[in-house]
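Example (one chain per record):
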Amino acid sequence: MRMPLPPPMRIALDLAAEAAAAGEVPVGAVVTLDNAVVATSANMMVMANDPTAHAEIVAIRRAAEQLGRPRLDRCDLWVTLEPCAMCAGAIAHARIARLYYGADDPKGGAVLHGPRFFAQPTCHHRPELYAGIGGEEAAQQLRTFFAARR
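Predicted structure:
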């Protein structure tokens, strides 16, 4: 029997599905503080004509604005796909306490793949990492999205 997904990951997966329907790569992100949702986003690169509008970046920006502070210590980030190097850098700079993500990204990921950003000696902040939460559903969303474009 499968365990139910934590509510923030369910929200992130729903946001990813909405992004796919809008023609964006299906990635969703949620920032929580003390188990309460502070900010959410899906990928917005196409809609915003902004290559930095990854779900994680937008959710981090929104959370910082909502909380009125540049550091998000004690906050958790839930994202459907392993963050890229840009997003891993933002996570470190924001001082996110815990990173929960769904699907691995062997090609573009930078947490457990590629540059392994948080394992580098020059990385000044390392969140606790929890991989694979909702990973099957997140991976299926991505496969479906890209199969329709081939």
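Caption: The radius of gyration is 14 Å.
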